[in-house]
Design brief:
Blueprint (H helix, E strand, L loop, with lengths): L1 H29 L7 H15 L9 H25 L15 H12 L9 H4 L2 H31 L9 H27 L9 E11 L5 E2 L8 E8 L4 H10 L20 H25 L3 H28 L2 H4 L24 H14 L14 H12 L10 H21 L4 E2 L2 E2 L2 H27 L2 H4 L5 H16 L14 H30 L16 H25 L1 H9 L1
Antiparallel strand pairs: 1-2, 1-3, 4-5
Length: 591
């Protein structure tokens, strides 16, 4: 396992090395200061303001800021819903793809407007180029920008004093797209093309298979000389289109929705080990950078490092757990020597559902990164993981997507846990809770609790509704505990605005599409509203001087308490459901 740990360490070290300089750049961008790209992008930024009639210097209160964010998201939802329903008559549709059903269009619009990117369809067969490029890709840029903007409102609320102005939503979002998301995505998209990811508007190509495949009457692959063979497939269709541009922003913007049905396991989206490295680092790059941005913004970098340390502890535990259980496989794999379980010269362990070019190590770290990051892209099928290996992604999502999380939304949810920790610690020592010089009152605590419990509540309600419908059983490819895990994973993925799937649930039904769509909308906009209220309340409070009795919020003890609170609130909320799914399956496997 030494090589595996070295590779895990290299991924994390590279991630942090890139995140630290990016953190300072993002603070300059969101403050409207000059950057290395200002000479190129400032005229474009000004043109956007002029065309849209926006005053970038407007000082909005939190209520107007929230209203603008909600109105923009509502218009985005309606526009994307219309594109998906009408794509059959819209241009750039060389494959003649029909419009979506109302419930699938509702689910997909909810998914991409909430930065979830859950997909109840295969993109290469269900969407036109118009829907992919002008529908989904546009939302992939603007939805992380909304989350980033709301996070900086909270930053201003914590760092500011005795004012009501939180900034301009339109200026924040414009700067996030122009200066942060677009430049980095341009570089990564070009790199993707260099590695072999398609980027064109060509029709799909038909190619000859190197080895023809024989099928029986039920569509199962059989030997060519098998008497049951009724059909031989000699050709395959290769989906083309604007893939590299969507892959770049799906990773960097914690979106995750794949152009192809098998997502980043596809050699078209993720063709090489080098592309796998860059895409995997992109999953957590901005969320981790924002923790250091927070420390810089409040003029105390120790605070950012403390938040990062709490996230790092949880992420490291997840990576090690997934990697270890996938390497050990199952007793059934390990018995008899029929399955290679070693690590010498080739990847061993549980290789079911994994690409041989990535193996257990790269698949495990991607599974941990993507569910920690609220990204949802996959380079292996989580449905084929061992029970505990598959449980870890559920837990990372069920914590509230606070281990990095989505762009902006991950950190403001984590700061909710930080405030809850401050409150609990204050009760323990008998002091009024304070955080960075701001008194934490009843209103702030109510908003912090909303940030902490929204994901578990939404997840459990969604899973309950789906389980109460007898038709859900017909959507499962497995029964018993594993079948329940498929439902729980889907509910947690939607409830956590993650978007990854266990791949064993046929989610394209009216009920499941509707329930998951409502989950996504609730977990996106309830925390956004709570964050804006929290920011406005903190901004109006004067700062108080620190004293010898002020609780330190940047030492190892506070980091430990924060991790403990996250686990108590997040993990224990889902424990009964986990006991019915992956934990029960683990005991069934070993007993």
């Amino acid at each position: 396992m030494t090589d595996e740990f070295l590779e895990y360490g290299a991924y994390v070290a590279l991630l942090v090395a890139l995140a630290i300089p990016l953190s300072g750049y993002m603070n300059k961008v969101m403050a409207g200061e000059k950057t290395v790209l200002s000479r190129v992008l400032l005229p474009l930024e000004r043109a956007v303001y002029k065309v849209s009639g926006v005053d970038p210097n407007e000082k909005m209160g939190w209520k107007k800021y929230l209203a603008c964010a909600l109105a923009f998201s509502a218009v985005s939802f309606v526009g994307l819903f219309a594109i998906l329903m009408l794509q059959g008559v819209l241009p750039f549709n060389p494959e003649g793809v029909d419009g979506m059903s109302w419930h699938l269009a509702f689910n997909t619009a909810s998914s991409f407007v909430t930065n979830t990117n859950w997909q109840s369809y295969s993109g290469e067969s269900a969407l036109s180029y118009f829907s992919q490029a002008l529908g989904l890709t546009v939302q992939n840029f603007v939805t992380p920008a909304v989350g980033l903007s709301v996070l900086y409102v909270l930053f201003r609320g914590i760092a500011g004093e005795a004012t009501n102005a939180v900034g301009s939503f339109w200026a924040d979002m414009t700067r996030g797209v122009l200066y942060i998301l677009m430049p980095i995505c341009l570089v990564t998209a070009m790199f993707g093309v260099f590695q072999g990811v398609p980027q064109n508007l060509s029709e799909y190509e038909t190619v000859d298979l190197v080895e023809p495949i024989s099928l029986d009457a039920d569509g199962n692959v059989v030997s060519s000389d098998d008497p049951s063979a009724v059909e031989t497939v000699e050709h395959a269709v290769v989906p083309l289109g604007p893939q590299s541009s969507q892959v770049a922003i799906k990773q960097l913007g914690t979106n995750g929705g794949g152009y192809n049905g098998v997502n980043s396991a596809s050699p078209l989206e993720n063709p090489t080990p080098l592309s796998n490295l860059i895409e995997c680092i992109s999953l957590l790059l901005i969320p981790i950078s924002l923790t250091f941005s927070f420390g810089r913004f409040v003029a105390d970098r120790r605070q950012g490092r403390a938040v990062f340390a709490a996230m790092f502890v949880l992420l490291l535990a997840g990576i090690i757990a997934v990697g270890a259980f996938e390497q050990m496989g199952t007793p059934q794999f390990a018995s008899g020597g029929d399955v290679y379980m070693g690590t010498v010269d080739q990847s061993g362990g549980n290789m079911e559902g994994k690409e041989s070019r990535f193996g257990v190590t790269d698949s495990s770290i991607w599974a941990a990164f993507t569910t920690a990051a609220s990204n949802g892209s996959v380079n292996s099928m989580h449905d084929s993981y061992t029970p505990i290996g598959g449980m870890v992604p559920i837990v990372l999502m069920g914590l509230g997507e606070v281990v990095g999380g989505g762009v902006g939304c991950g950190l403001y949810s984590m700061l909710g846990f930080v405030l809850l920790t401050v409150f609990i610690a204050g009760l323990m020592v008998g002091r009024t809770p304070e955080y960075l010089g701001k008194k934490i009152g009843p209103l702030e605590m109510r908003m912090a609790v909303i940030l902490c419990i929204t994901t578990p509540v939404v997840t459990l309600l969604g899973a309950s509704v789906m389980c109460l419908d007898p038709a859900t059983v017909n959507s499962l490819t497995n029964s018993d505990a594993h079948g329940f895990s498929e439902v729980l994973y889907a509910a947690t993925s939607a409830g956590g605005n993650n978007g990854s799937a266990f791949a064993g649930l046929n989610a394209n039904t009216p009920l499941i599409n509707t329930v998951l769509g409502i989950e996504m909308l609730a977990n996106r906009f309830i925390p956004i509203a709570a964050t804006c209220v929290l920011a406005g309340s903190l901004l109006a409070r004067p700062k108080v001087a620190t004293s010898s009795g002020t609780l330190s919020t940047c030492n190892p003890m506070f980091v430990f308490l924060t991790v403990l609170v996250v686990l108590l609130v997040g993990a224990l909320s889902l424990f009964p459901a986990l006991a019915l799914g992956p934990i029960a399956e683990q005991f069934q496997m070993i007993l």
